[in-house]
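Lab notebook, page 48
Experiment: co-folding of the full assembly
Goal: obtain a model of how the components sit together before planning crosslinking
Operator: M.T.
Materials (sequences as entered):
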Amino acid sequence: MGEYPLTVLVCPDADGPTGLHDTLLSLAAQITQNFGFALLAPAGSDGIVRQLQAMITGFERSFSRRARVVAGWSGPLTSAVLSLGSEQQLIGPRTTGQYVAIMTAADLAFAHWTSSIMDAAATRPGCVVHCAVAEQPCEVARTDKYPVYTSVGRPKVPWGTQFDLVDFVANGPRCEPCSAFAMPVHAISSLPERVEGPSSLSDEERLWRIVSTVALLGEVVDVDEVLQLRRHETRGSDCDGPNAPSSISGAAAVDGYLRVLDGLGLLEQGSALHALLAEAGQGNEDERAGAVSGSTPAPRASTRRRGGRSLRDIKAFAKRSLRR
Amino acid sequence: MTSLSHDDSSGFQSPSRATSDLPSLRVQTVLYGHDARDINRFVQSIGAAVAMARRHGTLGQVILALGDSSPAPLVDSEMETRHRRAIATSGIDGYEYLYFDENLGSAGGHNVFLSRLDMDLSLIINPDAYADPDLIVELTSALRHRNAGIVEARQLPLEHPKEFNRATGETAWASGACFLVRRDVLCAIGGFDSGTFFLYCDDVDFSWRARLAGFLVVYHPPAAVYHDKRLDRDGQVMPTASEMYFSAEAALMMAWKYSRPDLAEQWCRDLLANGHATHQRAVAEFRRRMEYDELPTPLDPEGTVADFVGYTYGSHRFKYDD
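Observation: model returned without errors.
Model output:
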C-alpha cells in the first residue's frame, strides 16, 4: 500500500457492510489506480472481517493486492488518520503516500476521482484537495447476501463545488462529508495534538476538526467537479441521512473547536474565524436564553459558498449557524 | 481460442446444443473508439466475474466477445495478448475479437454475436462498464430462481431510475448497459431491432418484445456493474451531443413502433418548438423515414406492454433531470 501516492481509508458501518461492496466497486473502477486502501473492520465483528476479506479477494488481483483489511479495529478512525506517516502507523506498514482520503460505506467515487484529485495535488503540492460531493436519497434493499442501496431520488450537490473554510467551520461536524477531501499526510502527522479533541468526541467531530485545521494551516485547492456521491437512507423522510441534523450540538462543537484553535494561537485577530469565535460566545448566550424562553431555534443555514462577503455578513451568517 | 476478422453473418440461425449440462455464456460488448485503458479494465473485470462464477460452479463454456464498430481496429495483437493473459486463469474458454469494418451501432454489433444462437446465455454489457465480481453469479441466480427471460444489473454510481417491483424485481425493461438474456428469448423474438434503433431504445424495444412474447424482465439489485457516468456541478447527468440526437430520434421511433403515432406527432411538435437544434435534426430524420416508408411496423396496438410516461418508458422512481 505504501508504494502509491494516495491512501484511501474505507470505514464500514459497525452494524454491517451495507453499501460497502458498492464503495469497493467504485474504487476498483477508478480510471487511475494510483492508490492503496485499508478497510477498518470494527472490533468484535469477526463475521464482518470474513465478509470484507471475501469481498476483496473476489476482485481482480491488481486491485485486491493493494487492499489491507485491518481486523479488530478498536480505536477511533481519527487515530488511524493521525498515525499515517508515523513510524507507528496503526493500519499496518508505513504509508509513504503523500495523500489520504476517507470513504464510508455510504460513499461512491466517480471514475475520475483519484485521477482528478492527484492531478490537482500535483499542481499545488502539499495543499488540501477539495471536490464536490453529490448526495442521493436511497433505501436499503434486503437481499440474500447483504443489503444494498437503491436510489429513490435524484442526486443534488448541497454543498456547492467551492470550499469555504468559514462555512465549513461554522456549520459544524455534520457539514460536508469527509470524502470531499484528500489531505496531505505530512500536514496531518504534524497537527497539534489538542486539535483532535478528547476521546468523548465522535469520529465525525474529530475528523471535522482535522479537516478544518489542515485547511486552516495550509492551502485548499478546488477540483470544481462532482467526484463523490454520498448515499443517504431515507426511511420515509429526507431527514434521516448521515448529514441530517443530529443530536450533536453544532454550536457547541464549533465553539469548542474554535476555542482550541484560539488556545493554540491559530486564530488571527480580525480573521473571519476569530469573528466566528466572538459570535460563538454571543450565540451560546442567545441559545441558552432561547432554551429558557422556549423559543424555536432558527432553521439550519444553507452551506453553499458565499462569495465576496464582508466580515459583517460572515458574522451574521455565523450567528445564524451557531444558533441552530 | 479464436480471433476472427470481419464476419458479416446476419439473421438468426438454428440453435446448436451446448456440450455441458451447465449453461454456456457469451459475454459480449461492442466497442467504438474506446480508450485502450478502458477496454483492458473491462476485460480484467469480466475475468474476475467469470472466475467467481466458476468457483460457484454455475457455468459451462464461457466466451468473451469484443465486437468493434470503430473506424480503425482498437485491439491490436499486443492488446489481444494482454487480454488473453488477463483471462488465462479466470475460466474463460474462448476470446473473440471481431472488427466489423463499419459502424453497426450498438444494436447491430450485438446482433452479430446474438444471431449465432450458440450459447445458452448472453451477457450484454457496455465496454465502459466495470463488472462487479459477483455480477455473473447474481444474474444467473436470478435467472434461475425468478424464471426470468432477461435480468438486468444495478448500475453504479448512477442507478437507472426506472421503477421495479420490490418483491419480484419485475420491471418494464432492461437497460442494455448490462443485462443477461436467455437463448429462448432470442429464438422467440430475434435480436435487437438495429434497423430502427442505432444507439438508444434498442434495449427498451428488445425488452418490450420479450414481454409481448411472455417473458419476464427482472431487475436484480444485488448484481452490480459500474458504468462510468458523471454529474455536472448541479448534479445533472451530462448528455453528449450524440446522446441528445439519438435519444430523441429513438423516442420518436418508439412512439411509432408501439402504435402511438399521436405521441410521435406531439413529440415532433414539442421538439421543434422547444428543443435544441440537435433535436430538430432528429425530427427531420423521423419525418424523412416516414416519407420514404422506412418506419417499422407498429406493434402492441392494445398497449399491453408499451407504457409511455412523459418522455420516458415505464414509470420511474425519479428523474435525473428534474
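Interpretation: Residues 1-18 of chain B have pLDDT under 50 and may be disordered.
Next step: discuss with group before ordering constructs.
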